[in-house]
Task: structure prediction
Amino acid sequence: MTAVPARLKILLVEDLEDDVFFFKRSFKRAEVDADLQVAMDGAKAIEYLSREGAPSPSVIFLDLKMPNQNGFEVLEWMRKNPRLSKTKIFILTSSPEPRERELAKELGAHDYFLKPLSAEQLREALDRA
Amino acid sequence: MTEQKVNILLVDDQPGKLIAHEAVLQELGENIIKATSGRDALECLLKEDFAVILLDVNMPGMDGFETAELIRQRPRFEKTPIIFITGYNTSDIDRLKGYRLGAVDYMFLPVIAEVLKAKVLVFVELARQTALIKRQAEHLAFHNQEQARKLEVIQKLNEELREANEQLETFSYSVSHDLRAPLRSLQGFSEVLLEDYADKLDDEARLYLQRIKSATLQMEQLTRDLLQYCRVAREDMTPQAVEVNALIKDVMAMNNFVLPSSAQFVIRDGMARVLANPTLLSQCLSNLLQNAFKFATPNVPPRVEVWTERQASRVRIHVQDNGIGIDPAHHQKIFGIFERVGNVKEHDGTGIGLAIVARAVQRMGGHCGVDSKLGAGSRFWIELQSAP
Result:
């Protein structure tokens, strides 16, 4: 191995503080070499990602049920953004609705996880990224 | 009910003839009204309806034909039968005139009692029948109106019920959904305490936390099942041809059942296709398979077998296990919501699984049921329309 792989950049889009807490806990336990950023809703995520010179995350975990802009709208925006063409987008939601799962896939999400995400699930997901 | 008497009108300028005809007709037992002129007759017609009018042709002033013409001008008497009574000297031309005016018959003087009686009787019966039919028609119209009104009320109530149900579904759905976030916090933080602070808690505290955690897990399952139950009502019901074999393989792959290595699962060859909503049917089969593995006989390797059976235009999907079985007394009950039987403590569950099956199968136009005895395994079946 000659090239050192770039550190993984993760963005979590989640409006519930408790869920952010649980995600961070799993993240710590998964012991992956990565940077974690959190956007507390969809609008903030879009603002962050649109910023001049902002790094493109390799992985985004996206909640669906959020105020102002729901996850599907944010997902559509992300999939139209050429800077995120290589970014893997994983939905992280509490909704077990098959219809929402299908819609997320249609809109270009790579996978669909039900909360809470365990350390093992997180590690596995990041391995694929 | 005694039959109502009908009216007979006798019109003649000669009182002798009036009395003679009245005497003959009295035997019929109806009301007889006499008029001595055309004008007199018209006045009588203002007050009553008549079954038949016996009208003398030769009367001074307004003769029989003129009287008939005036009678016919009133819509109410357009169809009242008129029998002209006339002498033998009436010419054919006069007779034709009479028929044109709506006479139904002619009688020639001197009138023969039996003939008069017989002819009048025909019209009396006719009037009675007409009145009866009219009454029945009115009754029927009233009845129909009443039915239409009742139908309207029922339709309105149905509409209200449908709306109320829809609201209830939406309500249950949002409640189940919104309960999940705080529940996740409860569950997550009790887990954090158990894992990260275990050394700072004594045994009793850890036990209580453990109990909080299992309660939240139970509630998590409950909200999930309730969402499924509500989803049954929200699913689009356009049936599709579904390959049962492939669907069961998907269900098994998705469910990740934790099974002992000795467990056996058999899908028989030659599985049929059915008309169904694939999401709902996979939900039903998932619930049945879960139960089949869950209610296993202790210390016996679980064996679950699935097959289809064609019955004319329908197909039965059977899910058979070698588990603990169900007392036939409970067979009806288990398909109701929140119903659990047997040793509830040993088998966690929410009592919604089979209610979802029953409801989903009903929405797909099918039937479901179970054959089982305590200690003899269970065979659950779902019957649906077969797909071409």
